Amino acid sequence: MIEFRGVTKQFPDGTTAVDDLDLVADAGRITVFVGPSGCGKTTSLRMVNRMIEPTWGTILVNGADIMDHDPAELRRGIGYVIQQAGLFPHRTILDNVATVPLLLGWNKKQARERAAELMELVGLAPEMAGRYPAQLSGGQQQRVGVARALAADPPVLLMDEPFSAVDPVVRESLQDELLRLQSELGKTIVFVTHDIDEAIKLGDKVAVFRTGGVLAQYDEPGVLLSRPADDFVDNFVGRDRGYRGLGFLSSDGLPIGELATVSVGDAGPSEGWALVVDGERRPLGWLDGGTQANGAVTAGDLVPGGSLYDTDSGSLRSALDAALSSPSGQGVAIDGEGRVVGSVSADEVLRALADARRTGAAA
Amino acid sequence: MNWGWIPRNIDLVASLTWEHMVLALVPVLLGLAISIPLGWLAGRTRIARAVLVPVTGLLYTVPSLALIVVLPIVLGTRILDPLNLIVALTIYTVALLVRSVADALAAVPAVTIAAATAMGYRPFRRFVSVELPLAVPVVVAGLRVAAVSNTSMVTVGALVGLGGLGRLFTDGFQRDIPAEIVTGIVLVLALALLVDGLLLAIGRWITPWTRVGAGARVRAGAAA
Ligand SMILES: Nc1ncnc2c1ncn2[C@@H]1O[C@H](COP(=O)(O)OP(=O)(O)O)[C@@H](O)[C@H]1O
Ligand SMILES: [Mg+2]
């Protein structure tokens, strides 16, 4: 757990970068600091490992005041992933990852063995070990940065815009990877970003900062989307927040309707839409009744389907998107194995949303 | 020209070559050892830099002969003491290197230094194991200039009876032996080229990361 108590940072030139911050980042969770550039996110993060000293206030890490520790020793116990990766250009990937274990006094062999494990954990091929950072893509460098931060197994991980310099596709896969890692490791993570979508995707809780280093709102992402504290947060959260907020509402209890299905080679319906499935009842596409030439369904008759709604893990957002993106207006509901179990409609999703509002799950 | 002079004096030439090397390179090492802390200091504050870099640079403009004549008075050495020459050339090396070291350290990316701090390096260890290695390519470039400059400047010492191969110039001139003068010139040039090449090779050998570039990245694959 990381606790900010009345923390303020004023730089010598008079800039107030962080203004009276009170905040608890829960143990084992991802807390995201988000806000426009210059709002004090990096300063807040760097005060945790004493790279910047607070002007006023107290910061506790797992109950202990950080000022009671020697700064270098404190930092060896706190993982840090820096913007642009910040790898050591003159060291191989393996030696980059082994940095903190070596600082902690492990012998070289142990440290390198540990580094090799970490490389595997973050999905870096063993043949990368002997390369230098300049030989890696941006996404690979970020993985190395994460591996380096985790090498001594610190309970706390600070991440400063780690994925902001990579292209969107790679960023998405790095985000997914981080969530997977976190589900295995359960670190106390503070993650800084200026990207609200990234914040909402990764954060168990999200702290929105405004310029001047003032905390505007600190809540779970679903609450942030449904009940922004003020106009600033509303604006910052951005367009479509009502729709995006559906992603945080459980679809438990959403009624699953009947769905007409046919197999390739069968006779299609004379009218209306039917879903074409394979032998395992996995969806192949839609069939517009009466359009196929000779009665038997062929692959050429298929109309591509929309997104699929997974009844095991889906949200109201995925159910609604399945309904809206389906050519028939019926969303395809599947089970965890990908087999069709029925349909969902937009009307039912909106009814479920109304129910959720009435019971207070959303405002 | 009487080339027979060379085989007859081969022992003298060899010992002067050795002396020349020592007189040129010991100051390079001493100068480097002095320039690193000065260059580091210049990087601490703007004032330190504004003072150190121009002042040390100015030392290079002091005429070498003047320095060799004045140093015995300052140091209390005899006029023929090789120490005078070594100190003089060390001063020139410092004059050339402080700026190189300061610039090289200033060019180490801030994000790399911040990363090292965040990992838990204390300042001294961070300097030795992160900042200094990254400064090597620029420092070596400065060292090559200093080493070549020293190799030619050693000959000035011949005017006061020192000076390694430079003595072949003075002696050959006084005794009118052109072969001796030519031998001196050729050997000084060869020595300068050798030292330069050697430093280049050492510099490349200790900085393997500088030889991997964009081409290597393509081979490494584009996967994230
Ligand atoms: N060393 C410093 N000296 C003076 N002002 C600074 C310093 N570092 C940051 N600031 C200022 O503090 C504010 C917050 O900076 P920062 O924490 O880096 O913002 P963010 O990470 O949210 O973009 C900015 O206005 C920035 O200009
Ligand atoms: Mg920042």
Automatic annotation (TrEMBL), chain A:
InterPro entries referenced in this protein's UniProt entry, alphabetically: AAA+_ATPase, ABC_transporter-like_ATP-bd, ABC_transporter-like_CS, P-loop_NTPase
Annotated EC: 7.6.2.9
Pfam families: ABC_tran
MF GO annotations: ABC-type quaternary ammonium compound transporting activity; ATP binding; ATP hydrolysis activity
EC category: translocase
Name of this chain's protein: ABC-type quaternary amine transporter
Superkingdom of origin: Bacteria
Organism field: Pseudonocardia bannensis
Family to which the UniProt record says this protein belongs: Belongs to the ABC transporter superfamily.
Keyword entries, A-Z: ATP-binding, Nucleotide-binding, Transport
Segment forming the signal sequence: none
PROSITE patterns recorded: ABC_TRANSPORTER_1, ABC_TRANSPORTER_2
Domain ABC transporter: 2-236
